[in-house]
TrEMBL record:
The modification N6-acetyllysine is found at residues 56, 146. This is Alpha-tubulin N-acetyltransferase 1. InterPro entries: Acyl_CoA_acyltransferase, Atat, GNAT_ATAT. One of its GO terms (biological process) is neuron development. Autoacetylation strongly increases tubulin acetylation. The gene is ATAT1. Acetyl-CoA binds at residues 124-137, 160-169. GO terms for molecular function: tubulin N-acetyltransferase activity. Residues 209-220 have a biased composition (Low complexity). It comes from Gorilla gorilla gorilla. It is found in: Cytoplasm; Membrane, Clathrin-coated pit; Cell junction, Focal adhesion; Cell projection, Axon.
Amino acid sequence: MEFPFDVDALFPERITVLDQHLRPPARRPGTTTPARVDLQQQIMTIIDELGKASAKAQNLSAPITSASRMQSNRHVVYILKDSSARPAGKGAIIGFIKVGYKKLFVLDDREAHNEVEPLCILDFYIHESVQRHGHGRELFQYMLQKERVEPHQLAIDRPSQKLLKFLNKHYSLETTVPQVNNFVIFEGFFAHQHRPPAPSLRATRHSRAAAVDPTPTAPARKLPPKRAEGDIKPYSSSDREFLKVAVEPPWPLNRAPRRATPPAHPPPRSSSLGNSPERGPLRPFVPEQELLRSLRLCPPHPTARLLLAADPGGSPAQRRRTSSLPRSEESRY
Ligand SMILES: CC(=O)SCCNC(=O)CCNC(=O)[C@H](O)C(C)(C)COP(=O)(O)OP(=O)(O)OC[C@H]1O[C@@H](n2cnc3c(N)ncnc32)[C@H](O)[C@@H]1OP(=O)(O)O
């Protein structure tokens, strides 16, 4: 991805890390330094274009990454540049990954709610011309080391099929722990929840390209004390919610409100085991108390009920396990 300005000079390192301040990194000695405001404008242009390209690649109706969204969130973006090819002497951008900590309510394999704050993969894109060349892995690996996380400790905001395959291939992440929100977590996510958070993105909120510390420690923390059940919101905020499509609640809440006349189209399918819910048209949500009451009453999942009917002997925890990976790409939108 090329730009009408010198990307190579703007980002001296192969991977540049930017936070909400979008501060231009220090330039190489001897390079002419344009006004700081111009450099920041260039950074904003790059982020906006990367966000648009990523949205297009994922068939999203709008970018989930932009300079303005970066400035209003505590996210960190890692940008990979092409340091070999220098088209027109200005360098090129290969791709980016955006991460951030989020408070989430996630279910463990005993179906208990856990309030945690893991590092989340929010957006990830490698330019089409160089996908499957190992650039995604290079960027992901760098991010893991800088943030001091291990892959199974991450929560992924509605991963695409490509990303799921990527995670499976490079990090052997396969078995998911079923959730009722948009985030996908993998087996092993809860293994290190007791460990304290490492100094990471939350401690170093400035542009940086510092040396990589190869020792990973757990970033996520379980947030004590446990809240009263009435305070727990079963749906955790996804960065993709502004896209104006609703996350479908689990059965029985996914039933459409009563209508005088039947709907013109059949309702969207309910979520399937191991998947984040599929999206359907916006519909009024039930009040939170009613939602929670229904959640307590409802079975973990329609598929689980089918399994129960077919195999009354196995344990519920076993039934909720899945070895297959979530969602077809079409179901994300
Ligand atoms: C939370 C989110 O951000 S979800 C959105 C994720 N982003 C996208 O889907 C955008 C389009 N895709 C991409 O930008 C890239 O393919 C990425 C970021 C997913 C991976 O980056 P790459 O540089 O292609 O990955 P890298 O070369 O390191 O690894 C390749 C592996 O990724 C997976 N992969 C990459 N592209 C594809 C594809 N088109 N089809 C299937 N698997 C793919 C495969 O496992 C592949 O291994 P293989 O070639 O042996 O099958």
